[in-house]
Design brief:
This protein has 491 residues and is α/β, with parallel strands linked by helices. 30% of the residues lie in helices and 11% in strands. The chain has twelve helices and twelve strands. The strands form three sheets. Strands 2-12-7-6-5-3-4 form a seven-stranded mixed β-sheet, with helices on both faces. Strands 8-11-10 form a three-stranded antiparallel β-sheet. Strand 5, helix 9 and strand 6 form a beta-alpha-beta unit. The longest helix is centred in the C-terminal third of the chain and has 28 residues. The termini are far apart.
Length: 491
């Protein structure tokens, strides 16, 4: 047909009325499949340390406000989410108005039938001296060993004794203070261990603890080798495949959290085959048995170590997760475990029940820690991805952690939408019950808003930090690196 010929009456005439531009934009936002099309993901990328690494061969990123030669380490999930909450009006002075379901710390106030919490700490004069690198002298020691002269050794002896009584039983090989190092926090413990690891292949799993990303990024001598775990297999690490990887890939170090699948026993067995196993056991107390007889037990690879001086196993644990008990006396510890496990199991069941009522069933209800790994895939787009879900909850004064922070991806190069953790968020049931209910109420409000008004108003319009826009590359630098939490490492 020539341009001069009329259009046949039998052929449909295309509409000449263009769709409204705003509707087109909203449709694109609603159905975005790449991080560059998502406002929540752009905000994440603009935060310092979150851009892809190694794309350009340069020491300094000219787009970042940084000290020459110093690379920003990026933010862990909790720090980034706290910064985003502050941009939305959160302040620590008024934190009681918010529900922080992202916090990586349990409530430490009174727990039914638990030990009384200390209300004061005596501070002897010698506690003002510099502390030795292998122990803490003074303030904590005054609680644990009643002002013994050699406080550093006494604290380490108390930790060793607790592990021997709890896990070593009739084994002839026992921990001594020489197997124990006290450091000011979990990340400090991980960093100290990473600092002495040579140029080796280091195995890690996805998903896992967010700080492993910073460790593997900061310590360049560690060559990261990822293993993606599948929800269908309950995130269980294939031990036989790992044994083959040790031989074929030359894995020298395995980094993992415990409790987890598999248990510490299997991983320690790997350690005896010429691989060093580093186990992060900060949640060794937070296990939830199905029967009354199961209360009071805890999990540690220390139970399966044959020789404490020969097996290549490093255990990292923390005193703050012991709910601030004043002594490391095994008898008091046993009482605290039972009270803590019953209290946190009740909170877990409460949160699972309320999520079920909201139509958010949890694929794998937690049997340990105080976290829930919540899959959002069944929600409508774009609410079904963790970053958008997180940003929407900030509007209702609630904080959760997007799942991508548990995708240990040191170079940050992958399109975030391709992350296996993209559709997840982590909810903590560590806070008091009232805070949990406030956060669950907020989740319900977000879901009702989407059901009532649709998702056309979801996925954009988020508040940015004062010193960040999406058109420039000025980072929002947070000043926090790690909390100061006493940590014990067994080596």
């Amino acid at each position: 047909m020539s341009a001069s010929e009329p259009v046949s009456n039998n052929e449909p005439v295309p509409s000449r009325t263009p769709p409204r531009f705003k509707e087109l934009v909203r449709d694109v936002i609603k159905n975005h499949k790449h991080e560059k099309e998502s406002e929540a993901h752009q905000i994440f990328r603009e935060a310092a340390g979150h851009k892809p690494k190694g794309v350009l061969p340069q020491t300094i990123n000219p787009d970042e406000e940084t000290v020459p030669g110093i690379e920003h380490p990026g933010s862990t999930g909790v720090i980034y989410c706290s910064d985003r909450a502050i941009a939305n009006g959160f302040s620590y002075a008024d934190s009681h108005e918010w529900a922080n379901l992202g916090q990586g710390a349990p409530e430490v106030g009174p727990i039914p039938n638990a030990c009384a919490r200390p209300t004061s700490i005596p501070v002897p004069t010698d506690s003002l001296e510099y502390a030795p690198t292998t122990g803490v002298k003074g303030m904590l020691i005054s609680l644990i060993v009643k002002h013994l002269v050699d406080g550093a050794i006494a604290l380490r002896e108390a930790v060793a004794n607790l592990y021997n009584v709890t896990y070593r039983g009739e084994k002839t090989s026992k921990y001594t203070y020489e197997n124990v190092c006290i450091v000011p926090g979990g990340r400090a413990g991980l960093s100290r261990v990473a600092a002495v690891i040579g140029d080796v292949y280091t195995s890690f799993q996805i998903p896992d603890y967010t700080a492993y990303d910073q460790v593997l990024s900061a310590f360049k001598r560690l060559v990261p080798v990822p293993t993606a775990l599948d929800a269908k297999s309950k995130y269980k690490l294939d031990i036989e495949q790992t044994k083959r990887d040790i031989l074929t890939q030359g894995l020298a170090v395995i980094l993992a959290s415990n409790p987890r699948n598999p248990t510490g026993q299997e991983l320690v067995a790997l350690g005896r085959e010429g691989t060093t196993v580093i186990l992060d056991e900060f949640y060794s107390w937070y296990i939830y048995p199905n029967s009354e007889s199961g209360y009071g037990k805890s999990i540690s690879a220390a139970q399966y170590v044959n020789d404490v001086n020969e097996d290549s196993t490093v255990i990292i644990d923390g005193l703050t997760k012991l709910a601030a008990i004043p002594l490391l006396d095994p008898a008091l510890v046993a009482l605290e475990k039972v009270a803590l496990q019953k209290h946190f199991k009740a909170k877990r069941d409460h949160v699972l029940s309320r999520l079920h009522a909201l139509g958010l069933d949890v694929d794998l209800p937690p049997t340990s820690t105080f976290y829930i790994w919540l899959n959002l895939e069944k929600l409508p787009e774009p609410l079904n991805n963790g970053l958008v879900f997180f940003e929407e909850l900030l509007k209702f004064k609630t904080i959760v952690i997007p799942g991508i922070f548990f995708d240990i991806n040191p170079s940050h190069r992958r399109n975030l939408f391709n992350s296996p953790c993209h559709h997840f968020v982590r909810l903590s049931f560590g806070p008091p019950l009232a805070d949990l209910d406030r956060g669950l109420d907020a989740i319900g409000m977000v879901l009702r808003k989407a059901k009532k008004s649709g998702t056309q108003n979801i996925g954009y319009g988020y508040k940015k930090p004062i010193n960040m826009t999406l058109d420039t590359h000025v980072p929002h630098v947070d000043g926090s690196l790690s909390p100061t939490t006493p940590t014990a490492a067994l080596i």
